[in-house]
Amino acid sequence: MSYPTQPTASHFINGQYVEDTDGAAIEVIYPATGEVIATVHSATPAIIDAALDAARAAQAAWAAMTGTERGRILRRAADMMRAANHDLSVLETYDTGKPYQETSVVDATSGADALEYFGGMAATLTGEHIPLGEDWVYTRREPLGVCVGIGAWNYPTQIACWKGAPALACGNAMVFKPSETTPLCALKVAEILHAAGLPKGLYNVIQGMGDVGAALVADARVDKVSLTGSVPTGRKVYAAAAEGIKHVTMELGGKSPLIIFDDADLENAVSGAILGNFYSSGQVCSNGTRVFVHKAIKHAFLKRLTERLATAVIGDPMDPQTSFGPMVSERQTSIVLDYIAKGQAEGARLVFGGARMDRAGFYVQPTVFADVHDDMIIARQEIFGPVMAVLDFDDETDVLARANDTEFGLAAGVFTCDLTRAHRIAAGFQAGTCYINTYNDAPVEAPFGGSKASGVGRENSKAAIEHYSQIKSVYVRMGDLEAPF
Ligand code: NDP
C-alpha cells in the first residue's frame, strides 16, 4: 500500500531521516484492514545516542536566539502544517484508524494551533525586575535543556506538537518517541519543523517500545520528561525520572464522570455523552465514561442516545461520511471486548452494541451499558474504547461524591440549565479539566491536564511554559558589601 507523505525512514535525527535496520522491526498496521502499511525499526543504542547528542549540541545556540526568531520558525511550521492538512490527515488515519472526518479537523489542525500559539508566545517569555531598595533582583526565564517526549497512540500528531511546540518556544531541544503502534505522524512533524527553518538537532524522533522510552528517561543528557500514557506507565516513568531529579509532565489516563441533571437540554446532553464516549472510537483520555443520569430522565436519555447511535456511519475511515472507525489495534480490541464481557458478567444491562463487527480490521460496536453500579469494574477502570457506563442518581451531593470517588482526576462534565448548580458542581469536581454543557473541548489557549493519579503538570496555554522553563534569580548589589570579618 502506498499513501501520501510516507516518511522515508524510521528515525529523524539531526535534521534528516536516519535508518538503522539493526533495530527490531515494528510493523505499522492499518487498523481498518489489518494490513501492514509500513515497517519501522526500533532505535538501537547508537540511534538513541545520536538523537541525544544532536539535541545537546543544538540546544544552546537555539536558546541564544531571540524569542522572536524562534517563534517565527514555529509559526511558519504551523502554516505549513495547515497547508498540508489533507495529506497529514490521511497519514493520521492510516496510523490510527480514526475517520478522516475527524482527523481532517482535529489532528494536524490542533498541532498547528500549538505551533502558532507557542510561536506567538516565544517573544513574550521574560523575567521580572524585583526592587530591593537600591539593590535589585532580576529573573531570567531559561530553558530546561533537552526534553524527552513520549507519546500515546491516540493522537500522534497532536501529542508530538503539544510537547514540541512549548519546548521549542522556551529554547529547549526535544527527542520524541511515539508509541510503537503509531510511529509515522511524528516523523512528519519533525520534517515540517525543519522545512520551516528549525536548525538541525532540535526536534528528533526515534522509534521504539517501552524499553527505548525507559532508556531515554534514564539518560543523564535528559533534563525533562513529558509522557502521555497510562497511569501504570506514568508510575514507572515518574519514578525513573525522580532518580535523576528530572522535571516531569505526566498526562495520564482517566475514568471521568459526566453528570446529567433532569433540567438539562436533553439533545445537548446526548451530544455531550456521544462526544465524550465515542469520538475516536472512545480512545480519548479525558472521556466522560461514567455517565450519571438523573433518574427522572433516564429512559428519555437512553432512548435518544440509542436512536442517535443507530445513525453512526461505521466503515471505511477514508470515506468522509464515516463517523465511527476501528480500534487502533487487535490488542486494544481484545482489551475492550474483555471489558464488555466483564460488564455483562457483573450484571450491567447492555442497551446498545456489545460486539466485534463482522468485517476486516479492528471494529467494535459503540456500546452502552445501563444500570451500572459504582463498584463494577466497567465503572472503575479505564477501558479506552467505545464503552459507556450509565449510572442512575437523584441527589446532587450524593452524585458529586460518587463522581469524585476514583483514583483518577483528569476531566469531568456537567449538563444542567441551573446556572449556580453548574458552577457549584464544577468547583466540587476533583479533576483538572471540567466542562459545563459541553465535553472534550481542548483549545490550545486553555490549560489541559489531570489531578490525582491522572497527572502532573499542564499542557497548552501559558501554564505549559512553567513546565518547559525555569526561573533563575540574579541578585544585584549596587553599593559596598559588608561581611562579619
Ligand atoms: P502506554 O502507557 O502503554 O504507553 C505510553 C507511551 O509510553 C508509549 O510510547 C510507550 O511505548 C511508552 N512506554 C511504555 N513503558 C515505558 C517505560 N517503562 N518507560 C518509558 N516509556 C514507556 O499508553 P498507550 O500508548 O496505551 O495510551 C493509552 C493511555 O494513554 C491511556 O491510559 C490514556 O488515558 C492515556 N492518554 C492520556 C492523555 C492525556 O493527555 N492525559 C492523552 C492520551 C492518552 P510503547 O507503547 O511503544 O511500548
Automatic annotation (TrEMBL):
<dbReference type="InterPro" id="IPR016163">
    <property type="entry name" value="Ald_DH_C"/>
</dbReference>
<keyword id="KW-0630">Potassium</keyword>
<dbReference type="InterPro" id="IPR016162">
    <property type="entry name" value="Ald_DH_N"/>
</dbReference>
<feature type="domain" description="Aldehyde dehydrogenase">
    <location>
        <begin position="18"/>
        <end position="474"/>
    </location>
</feature>
<protein>
    <recommendedName>
        <fullName>Betaine-aldehyde dehydrogenase</fullName>
        <ecNumber>1.2.1.8</ecNumber>
    </recommendedName>
</protein>
<keyword id="KW-0520">NAD</keyword>
<dbReference type="Pfam" id="PF00171">
    <property type="entry name" value="Aldedh"/>
</dbReference>
<dbReference type="GO" id="GO:0008802">
    <property type="term" value="F:betaine-aldehyde dehydrogenase (NAD+) activity"/>
</dbReference>
<dbReference type="InterPro" id="IPR016160">
    <property type="entry name" value="Ald_DH_CS_CYS"/>
</dbReference>
<comment type="similarity">
    <text>Belongs to the aldehyde dehydrogenase family.</text>
</comment>
<dbReference type="InterPro" id="IPR011264">
    <property type="entry name" value="BADH"/>
</dbReference>
<dbReference type="InterPro" id="IPR016161">
    <property type="entry name" value="Ald_DH/histidinol_DH"/>
</dbReference>
<dbReference type="GO" id="GO:0046872">
    <property type="term" value="F:metal ion binding"/>
</dbReference>
<keyword id="KW-0560">Oxidoreductase</keyword>
<keyword id="KW-0479">Metal-binding</keyword>
<dbReference type="GO" id="GO:0019285">
    <property type="term" value="P:glycine betaine biosynthetic process from choline"/>
</dbReference>
<keyword id="KW-0558">Oxidation</keyword>
<dbReference type="InterPro" id="IPR029510">
    <property type="entry name" value="Ald_DH_CS_GLU"/>
</dbReference>
<dbReference type="InterPro" id="IPR015590">
    <property type="entry name" value="Aldehyde_DH_dom"/>
</dbReference>
<feature type="active site">
    <location>
        <position position="251"/>
    </location>
</feature>
